[in-house]
Amino acid sequence: METAPVQYAIVDGAVEEGLLDFLNEVNPPHCCLYAEPIQLDLVALAPYLVEVVPEVEAWLSVKASPWGIYLTSESSMRELQQHFRRYLWVRIPEQEKPVLMRFYDPRNIWVLVEVLTPASVFLLSVPSDS
Fold this sequence. Notes:
By secondary structure, this protein is of the alpha+beta class.
């Protein structure tokens, strides 16, 4: 049985200060992309994967800030959470430790897509079964 595609948004808590209040009030299906346990000072700044129900769509439609990105997927929220967690941290030559990559920031996503190979863009956008 095929699963109908679902629209999601990855919303950046660092950009949208009222995100946690909104999620607590409306309680749409959502999850944090950061792995638990999450440091308390990072909970409000974290990116959240949110199912785009009508209240979410209305809330995001009036935002002028670079709050995040939309995506549509047949994968479950849990599968998407696990998939996107893999892309949160990257290694760069100048740093010993991995650094946070805010791929969900619309100011970054197009630059990222330009430097990735088509195969890498595909892997970023589509969860695999592995």
